[in-house]
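Schema walkthrough. Field components (list of strings):
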Amino acid sequence: MAWTEYMEHVLEQLNGITAGTELENKTPQSLTIEFARDPLKAPGFNFASMAFNNHFFFQGINTDPHTQSAPSSLLTAKINDQFSSLDTLRAEFWTTAEAMFGPGFVWLVQVNQDLRILPTYIAGSPLSAAHYRRQSQDLNTHNADSYKDLNKVGQFGAAAKTAPRASKPLGGVDITPLLCVNTWEHVWLHDYGVKGKGEYLNRWWDKINWTKVEEKATLSQPSQNYGFERFTR
Amino acid sequence: MIIRQHLARTGSRALVRSSSHPLRRFLSAETDARHVSADDSIKQLHTLDTQLDTPSLPPASTNDSHTHPSATPAQLSAQVAEQYHQFKKQQQLIGKLGSDITPHYQPHTLLNNPPSPADVTLELLLASEAHQGHATSIWNPANARYIHGIRQGTHIISLEVTAAHLRRAAKVVQEVSRRAGMVLFVGTRDGQDRAVVRAAELAKGYHLFERWIPGSITNGQQILGRCKTKVVNEKDVEIDGFDEQLWGRPVLRPDLVVCLNPLENYVLLHECALNNIPTIGVIDTNADPTWVTYPIPANDDSLRCIQVIAGVLGRAGELGQKARLAAAERGEVVYSPAKGLVLPGDEDKAAADTSAREQLSPDEQQKLDEGIVDPDDLATMLDEAAHHEGKAKSDRIKVVS
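Field assembly_structure (string):
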């Protein structure tokens, strides 16, 4: 249902919005980028983004029941470098997804040579060109600008004398999405029930297709490690 | 009209669970019912804190090596190239996710990747509006054989006829290119320039999209006499050292002219006819088919149709050029080289030849120049050629000059 009915619904809506216009033959990815900046085009963005995200989620699942996918040594090394272990990554991922109250997606993305976890609430998109609608913070619980208030640097200097203007949103950092989990309720409600989000996330982790993750990542050979591990050997 | 369809083939399998795999517990998610709500809210606050303190994506730092201002131009361009390559790879992997886009008309593909003669179908011609003729009152009755019928007061060109004539023209272009002939693509209407240039690029020919200067063939020496010429070998590599020999040489003429709007280029086509240069032209219902050697009955007012036809002929020329260069790699020269040119190192041999020539009588000199051979010699040469084994050149008589 999360796949067949939902995609039909989303694409039907998207076709309805774009049919007859010059955008009718564009891919959902290009449409999310196209519609990201204009609030009036929010419905188009939502459907395009959901089509893209949902398909991304499903193509990242290992559908072969006979194999158990595992990350390759290069990817494991990268994960260990960034998250200290695969289990830690799993725990972080699980916690982030479990704690998101409401629909959304949680992504594993690559930024330059770093791997990061990125939550996108509701229909937010991780694509860097659609950063206006990344929606990586839960606006129900805090102000999107609040992190700036935490940073007290320069408050007594000359630069702080001018009234703080509403600054432009940050430019799009080049993000490569590698992996995502769909935490919309309709995905796991039928099989796991209302309380089964945690179980669903656990089971999903075991079905990740790590080959696809590695295809999307551009991993360079790990450089000489000058970290603390050197002293523990 | 479903423009996008979702991929149903993997749908049902995506939700298959592995029943044999036990659940793993990393965090004590299954807590007592009394503490559930508190734990959940604590977890949410915890995540909130982490998001507030360390936003998932901090702004790109200025210390980042990718954006360091003191990188040399070479480093910057290498970075840009790498980023572009990564972007292209990413697009290949995830660019099409979300839906299946039904095949549709993309105008740029006709110029960037034109169809080849094998791709010519009646559906393609119909979609390109090649069948649209003009009002019945302004037709040229000589085109009657190409017309399928009348609809809404306009003539409809028969697409089977169009396809057949287009294939024939493609064959002509291909063979002329294979024999290293010069093909000139002409299209002087608005919007035909890109198609003409692309066709000439593919066929390694020449293009013209501005007005044809009358007399460029009949009065070529005057109009084109100052144009630069060059000498190339069979592999299309330019050879230097021919400046003196080229100085007084007659002006070159095309071996084939492809005209995409014959109605506006009567002078060009007439000059070609006077000089025995074959022409191919797109003949609409109001055009005169006798102006060209190989008419292609089609709609010359539709840019899409012109792009298809020019693309097909360009691709045909490309095939011919490939065949010619492949033969050159094998050492076979399938055309007769330009007369009177001597390699810069062989002037002594040329001098010996000219002195030998001067010893002949004027009649014999004329025969030598024109390549006329005595019937007896010709008979022996034909016999030799027919009984010659192995070499592929035996189908071409080599004239001794």
